[in-house]
Every structure is written in structure tokens, then in C-alpha cells.
Amino acid sequence: MRLVVILGSLANLAAVSKAQTLADAARKEAERRKELEDRGVEAKVINTVGPAAASTANVMVSKPGAGPKATIAPTAAKSRRSAEWFRAEIQKQDREIRRSEERLTVLRARAAAERWALPRVGRTSRASPRSSAEERLRSQIQELELKLSRLRRERLETYDAGRKAGFLPGELDGRGIVP
Fold it and tell me: What's the total number of domains in the chain?
């Protein structure tokens, strides 16, 4: 009987979800599952990988009071980051990446100009200033390239952490569904 109720509500959810966004459907499904859990209704969750895996589907039966109730501790709720935090962090990293790319472009242009510049006329010092300037530019370019790769890696890690926290790509980039 309970399985029929669950399947019926899933069919209703499928019919209604065509007119909604995926996030709305997921939110309503989460609310429905929480309601069932609060009422103590036994639910079956069937996870399939694909059509070929239908015969070997994983079935998990949950009984009310059978296991520890999943609750978020007050300290864990505070430490959980929001979509706004991830979005702000990603935007900050994007700005830093753009600044580094612009600086790298300027340094590369200056290095190219130094390479093709005419030799200076007049007294020369003990150390060749031209080669030291080229070496200094080259080392600055290498440091900036390393910093840029580190920044890109950190941005990717932040994005992945946001995805693992359950946020959609549009929520993280600020382009799609923003609650």
C-alpha cells in the first residue's frame, strides 16, 4: 500500500515537473520525503545505474526509528557554506585570475620589446643591464605563470566543493537558478 502511494506521488511529480524547473522538483521531492519520514512511513528507494542494471537494482528499505535520525548539529549548520559564499569566492578568484592574466600580458609584451630593442649607446657598467633586465622579466613571467596556474586550480577546487555541497552550476556561477 505504501509503495503504491510513493509511486503515485512520483508519477504526480513527473507530470508536474515538466512545468517546473529541476530545482523546484528536487526541492518538492525533498520536502515530500521529509514529510514521509516525519510521519514514520516506510519507504523504498530504488537506485539504478541504467537500463541494463534494472535486474541488479539496489534496494534500500528504511524503517522509522531503525537507525539514527539524520540531523545537522548546530555547529555543523553554521559551518555549512551557502551558495552565496561559493559564488562570492569564485568571483573573487575570477577577478584575481583576470588581473594576473593582464599583468602577464604586459610583462610578455615588455619582454618582447626588450628583446628587440636597440642596444644602448654610451658607457657600459660592469654587469650588462640589458641581460639582467631580461632575466628579471623572465623570472617575473615564470612566477606569474605559476601563480596563475595555482589560482586556476584553487578556483576549480572551490567550484568542485560547491558542487559537492549540492549547488547547481548556475547557482555557483550566478547565471542560473539563484534562490
Answer: 2
Residue 113 lies in a domain: yes
Q: Tens place of pLDDT for every residue, the chain, 179 residues?
A: 455 445 556 555 555 545 567 777 778 888 888 887 788 776 666 655 555 555 555 555 555 555 444 444 444 444 568 888 999 999 999 999 999 999 999 999 999 988 887 777 777 666 555 677 888 999 999 999 999 999 999 999 999 999 999 888 888 887 766 55
CB burial string 103-139: b at 16+ within 10 A, e below: ebeebeeebeeeeeeeeeeeeeeeeeeeeeebeebee
Q: pTM to 2 decimals?
A: 0.50
Q: Which domain holds residue 161?
A: 77-119+126-173
Residues 66 and 99 occupy one common structural domain: no
Q: Give the three cell numbers for residue 28.
A: 518538492
Q: Identify whether residues 167 and 86 lie together within a single domain.
A: yes
